[in-house]
Amino acid sequence: MKTTLKLAAFSAALALTGCRGWETEERPVHLIKNMDTQEKGKAYRRDTTGLFADGRMMRPPVEGTVAQGQLGDDQLWEEGLGEDGQPSKVFPASVKAEENIEAQTARGENRYRIYCAPCHGVNMDGKGPVGQPALDGGPRLTVPPPDLHQERIAAEMVVGKIYSAIRNGVNDGNMPSYAAQIPVADRWAIVMYLKQAQVKKGSASGIESQGVAAVVVTEATAEAGAKLYKAKGCNACHSVDGSKIVGPTFKGLWGKQENTSAGPVTVDLAYVTESILQPMAKITEGYPPAMPPQQLNELEIKSVALYIESLK
């Protein structure tokens, strides 16, 4: 009996010793050699099979190949656009689902504080650190960050347009695109947090603003120009009460002589037209070169000009 126990103990010790993983210079035993040494092509290696004419083993993707999960076929989710190709007035269904809103808002607040608050401020008042004057007293940004509770954003800017600002940037890169830093789901979460904060403060009546009605101009009039002034976002940079924002106020502008980068000019229809279509051609002295080209037709431009003329 004792001999049997001793043999068992010795065998167990020997088995455990053999499993310690000691290094050896001996070649491993290949029971099925072709599973370990099979012929295969490796990236960045030369093609030795003669299969490819250029002699390269690594091949580019077939034209039209889309990575898994990156098809981007949902226009609303990916781009913030409705079926009409315009910025959507509504959130994607998954974002505004009742059971998701609380989690979306919390996530959005977290992402907002990381990516948006440095410019727009924790309170969304446009007074973040980057929006403050530089050490020399000048602005750090060409266009100051706006107060996100102001009417043109809280009550008039639809959710798809806010999403687009995050995805594509605005004001010729003054606010750059954050598409690389913020994934799609987090962009929508930020928009949800923003709209919830606006509703809570009373600057917006609901999380899905209907925006400014589209303006169809069939005749050039000052009334149509007044509507375009808001619909096209001119009110973001140009006041009508004499106050200075980003660009010159429209009040008293018509017929005035302005000093520009191309010399003095008189504000008339020709100048207004050029300023709308080619804003970098003549930069008004004392104002930043921040206006992107606008896509307005002849009737719309004449209407805006008539509206400016009426603001004496």
UniProtKB/TrEMBL annotation:
Q: Which InterPro entries match?
A: Cyt_c-like_dom, Cyt_c-like_dom_sf
GO MF terms listed in the record are: electron transfer activity; heme binding; metal ion binding
Which residue range or ranges hold the Cytochrome c domain? 103-198, 220-312
Q: Specify the domain of life of the species encoding this protein.
A: Bacteria
The answer to whether UniProt assigns keyword Metal-binding to this entry is yes
Where are the bilayer-spanning segments? none
The entry's protein name is Cytochrome c domain-containing protein
Q: Which organism is it from?
A: Archangium gephyra
